[in-house]
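Reference record:
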Amino acid sequence: MPANKDAETPSRNLMQRVAPEISILMAAHGLRAEIAAAVASIFVHAEGAAVEVIIASDDGTDYRDCLPPDPRLVFAAIGPIASGAPAARNRALALARGHFITMLDADDAYEGEAHGLAEALALARAEGAAVIPSVIRTPDGAELRRVPPAGTQSLGLRAWREVFASLHVLRPRAKAAPFHPFRLIDDVWSDLRALAEAGGRAPVCSALAYRYQLRPGQLTETRAASFDADYAEALAMLRDDPEAFGAATAEVARILWRWRAMNRWAERATKGNTRQLGHYHRHVAAYMAGRSSA
């Protein structure tokens, strides 16, 4: 009698009756053409981990018809329009059931090994949090920046000063505060808080990376003044509440001050020149290359 394949391998539906280990928050606004690739990249790298992907539409449309049916998909109620990424992420966070959470935007993707999320989960369980590296890629797929550099085993707040790019932390859901309504740096603020709560340092996952795919019109192409306003607000919040990040507050302020300075420098360097796609990351890459060769 032929062996029953389903008896040997747990079905996807059976696995999803178990509470997810990881909840991935995904905000989506005008990304119907991009979201399928983002979701597929999660499942491709989720071998050995029970995940759920919570999609919060911020454009009033239903993304269900953009995606193959899958019990690992959760959809926030449709309603708010252009409420902003922080509000959309908070709607997703309210539905999260996983022991750990992180975020992936609907126009980005994961890359790495099939067990990447499982490795990140193991690190987070052991150390309280895990850093997922970021790779910034040009439209043709070329790597513009990778932070932290390949081979980095752990990352602390002091080293975070030199990152100059969003990094995402897999962290316990029980400790996750709502995303603050900044226009552009709510993810930075949230992940710095997660690292501070983990003691100021966390291991870096080597089997997974968050891919920022540069494309025209995305928020990373926003003029520097918008970022500067967010940094100013964040620094004012830290001045008003010196205990906002506990013992790490002063270091978080140094990070934000330094990132604000880099943002201003990159904008000054762009004046009078054609703004290339990814101009900020191009200037940061040139700056870091100059430092390493000095």
Q: What stands out?
A: The CA atoms of residues 120 and 205 lie 5 Å apart.
